[in-house]
């Protein structure tokens, strides 16, 4: 049976009260496979959401983490703080973190290592800009990101990482990669990981598509062989839209 992970990345949206209300509404949607669903929320909401999600099967994720366990890093959050709350996932290397907050392939690698060591599943974001794609260098670019991200990480840890392909040109722009473009890159990522490690890792990886997935295009994307879910941005802010995508994945997993 094909595995899916539908993760809603709320980015910098919702107050804690709004987040709790959202979960109440999401529970009412009666998801058939909640274990394949995660909410990726701002730090201030995590503790309240952990309590609200208890017993639902829905997972909880953070949007970032520092690679040090403690220290003079004002405004940052450590893996130990996330563990204390009981976070299941943590996004690493999102294109917005790379662009606006100077996230590098080196810091991505260090964050992956600390999360894996502490038992939190990373959602690693990779993807190219429009400029890179127009030069037909998207595979070489993503290849470089993956090689740097997984440097020094053994296969038993690497196969636990969720990889989200997010074409930067399709995030928040209303544009979406065609299902064929998305599948081509996700298949390339799977093959690249098999090259970095061995063929057995291919069957264990969850590879998401993360570029403006919404109810109208979810089925066409999710039914592709190498797409195991979505890192959902804008559509995850509306309960019914997010639930519809999750239900689509559940139907395809049957």
From TrEMBL:
Catalytic residues as annotated in Swiss-Prot or TrEMBL: 94, 166
Binding-site residues for substrate, renumbered to this chain: 9-11, 172, 212, 233-234
GO-annotated cellular components: cytosol
Cell compartment(s), UniProt: Cytoplasm
Gene Ontology biological-process entries: gluconeogenesis; glyceraldehyde-3-phosphate biosynthetic process; glycerol catabolic process; glycolytic process
Pathway recorded for this protein: Carbohydrate degradation; glycolysis; D-glyceraldehyde 3-phosphate from glycerone phosphate: step 1/1; Carbohydrate biosynthesis; gluconeogenesis
EC code(s) of this entry: 5.3.1.1
One Pfam family it belongs to: TIM
PROSITE patterns given in the database record: TIM_1 (PS00171), TIM_2 (PS51440)
InterPro entries with a match to the protein in the record: Aldolase_TIM, TIM_sf, TrioseP_Isoase_bac/euk, Triosephosphate_isomerase, Triosephosphate_isomerase_AS
Keywords, ordered alphabetically: Cytoplasm, Gluconeogenesis, Glycolysis, Isomerase
Record field: catalytic activity: D-glyceraldehyde 3-phosphate = dihydroxyacetone phosphate
One function term, GO molecular function aspect: triose-phosphate isomerase activity
PANTHER family given in the database record: TRIOSEPHOSPHATE ISOMERASE
Oligomeric form and interacting partners: Homodimer.
Family: Belongs to the triosephosphate isomerase family.
Biological role stated in the UniProt entry: Involved in the gluconeogenesis. Catalyzes stereospecifically the conversion of dihydroxyacetone phosphate (DHAP) to D-glyceraldehyde-3-phosphate (G3P).
Protein name from the UniProt record: Triosephosphate isomerase
Source organism per UniProt: Mogibacterium kristiansenii
